[in-house]
UniProtKB/TrEMBL annotation, chains A, B:
Originating organism: Mesorhizobium escarrei
Protein name, as recorded: LacI family transcriptional regulator
Entry keyword set: DNA-binding, Repressor, Transcription, Transcription regulation
Domain of life: Bacteria
Positions of the HTH lacI-type domain: 16-70
InterPro entries: HTH_LacI, LacI/GalR-like_sensor, Lambda_DNA-bd_dom_sf, Peripla_BP_I
Length: 353, 353
DNA sequence: TCCTTCTGAGAAAACCTTTTCCCAAACCAC
DNA sequence: GTGGTTTGGGAAAAGGTTTTCTCAGAAGGA
């Protein structure tokens, strides 16, 4: 039993409609609608009576009916192929953050890498009259297995390969790499190696080029980036290659810093260095990429890493989609969002510090 | 330009309506509707003509209109507080798998641990007339910050604390623990330790009790479970406690197996054992929990771990929700779904094998 | 008193589909 | 030819809301 000091919203089996509110308030549905939406003209008394009645009955307008009429469903679709994604999940989270306050709900569709599944989801969303679609994925240089090119609703790409002429948000990988390498330089490291993933990833080249650029600008020696897999095991193997003198003839030229293409490689590198008796960060500094918190904080010492700000990226994507839905124009093109360096202990401190 | 050997679905600015199809086919909307839905009676020729017209125009019925009429939106809400969740993500994936083929789309709502946000999302979903709601989370013994008790639509709980009298699916943690400990027994290990998370987690007690039960049944010595945090660091620390003789007086009584409460602890344990010169699995076997693939496969050797089958759990939850929506009755209560042991190399092989 | 101008509120159309009921024509048997 | 049945298809209501148009009555001015 509800206390009767409070208005008790009747928990009816079936939702309260505007018609019921109108009847109880002794007005027409038209007037009721206008009263609740602050439209139309009526005495303050009438408006208040209707409001009160609606409140008492716990009236909430049926979104389906509204959407049908307004041709706007306050719903967007989020397409991804990153099922267990540590990349697309922060993106999603950012999107959701940006939209929930505006009353927009998000359909999450995992399309794996399956064309049929993709079409199924897109059709379902179109049928449900989503206001727009955001496509996201697990890497920046692969297209989702769906064709979003000629939809009649706005589409935004976030952390996935866009269609030409579309609007996309991606991380600035080159900028992120610069952040890491420049940080090493500032700390006085001068023999900086780069251990990263397979050549099939565009980001590998972007980051490696930035690595080379920074070192060249500073007049420091450029070592050839070691390409492998995105795994701890490759981190171990790379340390072997770097420190077993196969690459550098003279013993003195071993690296004093390693910039890694992701946090798992960095983890492998750190473990391998420790096993060789090399101290991190005193002998060798290490910086990772992705700032995958659970990995970065578990390494010993905790890993300095480049964060791609994926949540912010998602937020931007969400807001931009909304403005597009609202009819505002937007320049097509790829917008690169800056990364940031999260400094922990694996990179060392400045000489004076 | 589309080839003209194929029917070219006109990419109109505005969606094609049934009325347009009807007009073009020279019939009424009623007849058109019946033709496309296989209802009503008409000549085969008429039906075919209408179908063809619809096909040619690329007609797809407006889900909003259908939902409004049918009082069924083919939409469900998924509530979670596991933003970066490695638990709720597999669950979601299972749910989505189960529902996509039935044309059901899923609203993903991350409510963090915020009541206001939770209410916001629930209200939005209710307004949008979802057919049902699934609640999931990051742990089994915490309730989401929302009240789903007296909704007028079905609610299912999956991997989160249910309201009393509700339907819930959770993992059988005790069963999973048994799997691990019994596996050790089968391999001939007889001094099995248990290193797990904090006492504030219900699963810690469930698994510890199962651990004790199995050992008691087998007549093996029960060591007091070591409770700590869910971290690698605790794995290291626990090895120190186990092998520095503080617990067992005689040197011979050191464990030959460690059953860990999650994979991160197991990772820490394995690393710590190796650093002590103990071989895994020859000297000490290790089994983890969660089967978090990216961790389990990166440990050296790869980690045997208990998998909670979360995707299957999600699938069950999705299917059950659907049958509830369809009006079929279901027993309230908590259903525990079995775990499975994923054997890799950290636990050793049978003596004869 | 008559005409105009507000004012408050209702009727109805619109959004799009489904479904029930109904009707006219055709067909059949007698 | 008549009464009954089948057949093919349409009209209209329903679902819940918003918005435009309309209208009756009151107020104001002459």
């Amino acid at each position: 039993m509800a206390s009767d000091t409070q208005p008790t919203p009747v928990s009816a089996k079936t939702p309260v409609t505007l018609r019921e509110v109108a009847t109880l308030a002794g007005v027409s549905v038209a007037t009721a609608s206008k009263a609740l939406n602050g439209q139309g003209r009526m005495t303050a008394e009438t408006r208040e009576r209707i409001r009160e009645t609606a409140q008492r009955l716990g009236f909430r307008p049926n979104s389906l009916a509204q959407s049908l009429l307004r041709r706007r469903s306050f719903t967007v679709g989020l397409l991804t192929n990153d099922t267990y994604g540590r990349f697309s999940l922060p993106v999603m989270s950012g999107i959701s953050d940006a939209l929930v306050d505006k009353g927009v709900s998000v359909f999450l569709c995992n399309v794996e890498d399956d064309q049929r599944l993709g079409q199924l989801h897109v059709d379902a969303m179109l049928d449900k009259r989503v206001d727009g679609i955001i496509a996201t994925g697990k890497r920046i240089d692969r297209h989702l297995p769906v064709d979003l090119a000629n939809l009649r609703i706005p589409v935004i790409y976030a952390f996935t390969q866009p269609d030409p002429g579309a609007i996309a948000f991606v991380s600035d990988d080159a900028g992120g790499a610069r952040l890491a390498v420049e940080h090493f330089c500032r700390l006085g490291r001068c023999r900086i190696a780069h251990v990263t993933g397979p050549a099939s990833f565009a980001v590998v080249h972007a980051r490696a080029q930035a690595y080379r650029d920074v070192l060249t600008e500073k007049g420091l020696p450029v070592m050839v980036p070691l390409l492998g897999s995105w795994s701890e095991a490759w981190g171990h193997e790379a340390v072997k290659q770097l420190f077993d003198g196969k690459l550098s003839k003279s013993g003195g030229e071993k690296p004093d810093a390693v910039f890694c293409g992701n946090d798992q490689i960095a983890r492998g590198v750190i473990d391998a260095l420790r096993e060789r008796g090399l101290d991190v960060p005193d002998d060798v500094g290490v910086i990772g990429f992705d700032n995958w918190q659970i990995v970065a904080e578990a390494t010993r010492p905790p890993l300095t890493s480049v964060d791609m700000n994926l949540a912010a990226l998602g937020r931007e994507a969400g807001l931009t989609l909304l403005s597009l839905v609202g009819g505002e124009p937007a320049q097509p093109g790829i917008r690169k969002l800056p990364c940031r360096l999260v400094v922990r202990q694996s990179c060392g401190r400045p000489p004076g510090g």
